[in-house]
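Re-running the complex after MR caught last week's input typo. The corrected sequence lines follow. Everything else is unchanged.
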Amino acid sequence: MVKMETFERFDSLSLARTSAKAEQEQLPIVHSLENLMEIPNPPPAPLHSMGKAPSSTPDGSLRIALLGCNERSHLTRSLLEHIPGVEMVGITDPRHGEQKEIQQHEIRCECYPCPDTLLKKTSPHILLNLTSETTPHDLPNQVGTSDIEIPGQHTTTLLEKFIQHKNGQEQHMAEIEKLASIGTLASGILHDINNPMYVILGFSENILEEMDPVLVHEQAAEIFQAAKRIITMCKDLNLFAHQSTPKECVPVNLTQQLEEAMKIAKYALGLENMTVVQAYSAHPNILARPTEIVQVFVNLIINALQAMDGHGTLTLGASCTDRIATIKIGDTGPGIPAEKMEKIFEPFYTTKPPGKGTGLGLQSVRSLVQRHGGEIEVQSTVGKGTTFHLHFPLLLEAS
Amino acid sequence: MNTTYSPNSTHRTAGMFSGQTYLGGVLVVDDEQDIRKVVRMSLEKLGYYVVEAEDGQQAMTLLNMGEHPMVIDVIITDIRMPNINGIEAMDYFQREYPSIPLIVLTGFPDLDLAMQLMKQGVTDYLVKPVDREKLTAAVATALAQRRISWF
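Corrected-run output:
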């Protein structure tokens, strides 16, 4: 088995907390958006900015409301809601009325019949006009003197394009990382498929010359079992290799996904001398894309197994509070030195030898977690091990 | 054909297998029982005497026991195994029993590792699935090496 270098030793306690909210703190609105879109040079101030620039909320989130309920606004809303620090507060929908609950379920955002009600109820920082009208006829006059910013048509279009571009890039990165993970898994998969293949080949060769029906039957049974092993493996891997469906969020059970990830990760490295502790105090559900969640778990489990180099304890935990579901993936490896802790989420940063890591792993993991409205936290003690805590918004039974 | 091993047996002749020529003793080390069974059945048909071990630790114990060092002519070992893996076990065999030839039978088609092990004196590096002809040819070659080392 190929030995993989992991993290180096160091003698301090390190705690890196990556919070989407923390990144957005104390930033004026325009700069917050630029930060989110990673635009190197800020664009000019919005042409239709009305009144003074409002500040973001104390927790750093930016409240955005949309005018217009159409395909364009649905796409923008679905992409905006995945951006950390952005809160979608409402949308105008002229159909508002009897079917309000159905609409809200479909749109997954509070609906209001007209801009006036929307503004009064939601107090957004930014109002994005996604209707076909340059200036909506029912926009209240007092907006001009309020703190609400309304970007012009071109700025809005530019913003939409940025969001779509960024989203496309993230999906592309996630796909690259998935391919890289499959590369890491390849040798393990080969091993686990070659073994039953050998059983099939060897026994079938024997059967061709075997005259004793009892021995023929015995060997045929072995062939059958080996073929079933290969089928089970293919089923396990199918979930991981299958093209993800990024737009659809469905209720997902986190511990179930953790188990799926374990089935896949075990192909990467042998678990022969490894102790696996499953400490599930809850089996929380969240709203998520299952393939992305499995990808996050597979990455973190493979990292943990590689860090332990074949010997140690892998701890998988699940718990939840009223609103937050937490997954814990811990190893008893060498731990992460404090000076490296800052870098582990940077793209292309890796401690693995060339060809063994893309450096996209944790960056991709963080990005996927944030796209699900979650946070990732790392706790590491040099010489004792590292634990990743993933916090997701809990899917409440009522919703 | 079922072969029962007796540690007290001192026979290394054709009489050990009724009606068959005795070709030599082979220790098969693999953590998967069905893999050991395939190798055993393939080799026994031809007249080899086969002893099985499920990991490196058991292989060492077996080899050190009774007359095994004299009975075992070739060792076929997997690499990924619990407790003591194939690499560690081969280090031990080469140190303690340098005249017994080693064949690797693994699921990993790793060229670098194969080259490294061959340089260290491993007779062959076979990747599963391997057909019987190739396996028996590798065992025969290893056995010929073992015979040469006696002189």
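None of the earlier attempt is carried over here. The two ends of chain A are 47 Å apart (CA to CA). Chain A has a mean pLDDT of 73.
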